């Protein structure tokens, strides 16, 4: 064997698949010099780091949990007869989940707007004049004409709603396992990771937020400056003061940090740019103040280098921040 | 054969057949959670991800197009979700919390464990950015413990190809970690 690294042989050995002869060949290579030994031990360490822990999930428990998130039997087609049975049952059970298609809506056209393929937010006006800014990777479904009793939309993703006041018809957003109900107000709604977390941030007025099918009695009222958050898997709903100054950054393009700890800032940036950042140990306690207005991720990185006086390198698609030596 | 059964299940699911959903769930849940462990090293987080994937399937089945096989779709979804979670930095935090809950850990231990979480994160992302075929083979061997013969048969390639790709994976992972050589390998 020459000076080349026997990568495949090392892999085979680490995976425990070497024959005695191959193992001996590898040992001979390792003994050739220190460098070889070092390379082997590095690969071995990576291999060990990647070993998954033995973990056996409880399928029944998991399936129960999932069932709780699926609602009841759900209409899969726009077959309204079949649907009606489901909708009636849902209403009786107080789920109100898919009653988007209520009586008056029954014949109305259903419109779905999906921004998955878009790079920037999209603004739409609903039939009642409500203004919606729809973020990337979001969908909203609403009837071409709202019912005379209520205004119901189904939504997934992130959006800012500026609801036209109408005291007679509540404006209702169904998202994940939540029901958000208002008469006329402004708020930001975000459902994260497959709807398991739904976060409501209110900017104006008062909004009722409840868990829909999960626990119909659990309702909270969220006022301007507050956040209502539902964690579907834990089945818990909570309310707290909004401390995230950047909850509208996706819409405005402006990101502000004020004495922000670096780990939190990096989280905001990675969500906003959908770009991975990693901090090397030791940077966790750094905090800083700045504003980024409509910058590209590259420009942000250049700025951070100067503000924080750190090294930032792009490694395997991740911006890694590390202290200058 | 299995792929045909899965496709049939999937088309039933798109028509709202809850039994078909349960069958698919039971068939692949454990396997997918274990697969996700290779990336996340966190049982509950892995379960959460796989559950999310299934909920999405139930909600969106009529609009999901299965290109290769249902199983390939499941794996791809779980991998993407896991990598997303790593990118958005939840993993390290969770790890930190676990440590807090365990008062026996000394400060040095803690420091080292946080480092391990950090390296694992970098490694997971490096695995995620391996060339597709290479990544698939590596995942099957490392995360799922399949033998080279099994992998070769499943992917319809030669055992030699599996050996080579594993070598390439190891080389690339080492290259990705070299910048942290001091921290990673000298602890």
Description of the structure:
- The complex is a heterodimer of chains A (325) and B (187).
- Chain A folds into three domains: 7-49, no CATH class; 66-241, Jelly Rolls (Sandwich), CATH 2.60.120; 253-323, Phage tail protein beta-alpha-beta fold, CATH 3.55.50.
- Chain A has helices at residues 7-14, 20-32, 34-49, 59-70, 80-92, 249-252, 262-273, 297-308, and strands at 110-114, 122-125, 131-134, 139-143, 150-156, 158-162, 170-175, 178-182, 186-192, 197-204, 206-210, 219-223, 226-231, 236-241, 254-261, 276-279, 287-293, 310-315, 318-323.
- By secondary structure, chain A is of the alpha+beta class.
- In chain A, the strands form four sheets. Chain A has a seven-stranded mixed β-sheet, with no helix packed on it. A seven-stranded antiparallel β-sheet of chain A has the order 2-3-6-9-10-13-14, with no helix packed on it.
- Chain A has eight helices and 19 strands.
- In chain A, 28% of the residues lie in helices and 34% in strands.
- With 187 residues, chain B is mostly helical.
- Helix content of chain B is 80%, strand content 0%.
- In chain B, helix 2 packs across helix 4 (70-87) and helix 8 (148-155) packs across helix 9 (159-177).
- The longest helix of chain B is centred in the N-terminal third of the chain and has 23 residues, at 18-40.
- Chain B is globular.
- At the A-B interface, helix 1, helix 3, helix 4, helix 7 and strand 16 of A face helix 2, helix 3, helix 4, helix 6 and helix 7 of B.
């Amino acid at each position: 064997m020459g000076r080349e690294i026997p990568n495949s042989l090392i892999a085979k050995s680490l995976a425990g698949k070497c024959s005695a002869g191959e193992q001996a060949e590898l040992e001979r290579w390792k003994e050739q010099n220190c460098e070889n030994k070092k390379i082997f031990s590095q690969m071995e360490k990576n291999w060990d780091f990647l070993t998954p822990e033995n973990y056996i999930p409880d399928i029944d428990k998991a399936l129960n949990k999932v069932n709780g998130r699926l609602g009841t039997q759900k209409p899969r087609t726009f077959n309204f007869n079949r649907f009606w049975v489901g909708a009636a049952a849902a209403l009786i059970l107080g789920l109100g989940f898919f009653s988007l298609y209520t009586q008056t809506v029954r014949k109305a056209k259903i419109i779905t707007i999906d921004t998955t393929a878009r790079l920037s937010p999209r603004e739409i006006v609903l039939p009642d004049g409500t203004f919606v800014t729809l973020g990337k990777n979001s969908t909203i479904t609403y009837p071409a004409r709202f019912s005379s009793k209520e205004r119901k939309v189904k939504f997934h993703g992130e959006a800012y709603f500026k609801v036209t006041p109408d005291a007679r018809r509540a404006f209702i957003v169904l998202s994940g396992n939540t029901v958000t109900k208002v008469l006329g107000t402004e708020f930001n709604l975000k459902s994260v990771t497959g709807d398991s977390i739904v976060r409501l941030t209110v900017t104006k007025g008062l909004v009722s937020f409840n868990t829909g099918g999960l626990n119909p009695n659990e309702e909270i009222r969220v006022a301007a400056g507050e956040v209502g958050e539902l964690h579907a898997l834990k089945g818990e709903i909570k309310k707290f003061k909004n401390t995230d100054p950047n909850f509208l950054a996706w819409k405005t393009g402006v990101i502000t940090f004020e004495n922000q700890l670096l780990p939190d800032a990096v989280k905001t940036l990675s969500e906003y740019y959908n770009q991975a950042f990693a901090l090397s140990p030791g940077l966790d306690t750094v905090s800083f103040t700045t504003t980024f207005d409509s910058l590209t991720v590259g420009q942000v990185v250049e700025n951070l280098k100067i503000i924080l006086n750190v090294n930032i390198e792009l490694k395997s698609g991740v911006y890694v921040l590390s202290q200058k030596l | 054969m299995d792929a045909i059964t899965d496709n049939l299940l999937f088309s039933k699911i798109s028509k709202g057949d809850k039994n078909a959903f349960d069958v698919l769930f039971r068939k692949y849940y454990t396997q997918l959670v274990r697969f996700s462990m290779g990336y996340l090293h966190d049982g509950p987080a892995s379960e959460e991800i796989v559950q999310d994937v299934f909920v999405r399937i139930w909600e969106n089945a009529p609009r999901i197009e299965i290109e290769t096989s249902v199983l390939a779709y499941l794996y791809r979804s779980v991998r993407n979700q896991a990598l997303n979670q790593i990118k958005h930095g939840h993993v390290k935090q969770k790890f930190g919390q676990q440590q807090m809950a365990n008062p026996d850990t000394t400060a040095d231990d803690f420091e080292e464990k946080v480092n391990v979480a950090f390296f694992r994160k970098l490694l997971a992302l490096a695995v995620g950015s391996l060339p597709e075929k290479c990544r698939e083979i590596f995942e099957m061997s490392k995360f799922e413990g399949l033998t080279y013969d099994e992998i070769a048969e499943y992917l319809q390639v030669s055992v030699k190809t599996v050996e080579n790709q594993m070598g390439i994976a190891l080389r690339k992972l080492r290259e990705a970690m070299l910048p942290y050589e001091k921290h990673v390998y000298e602890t």
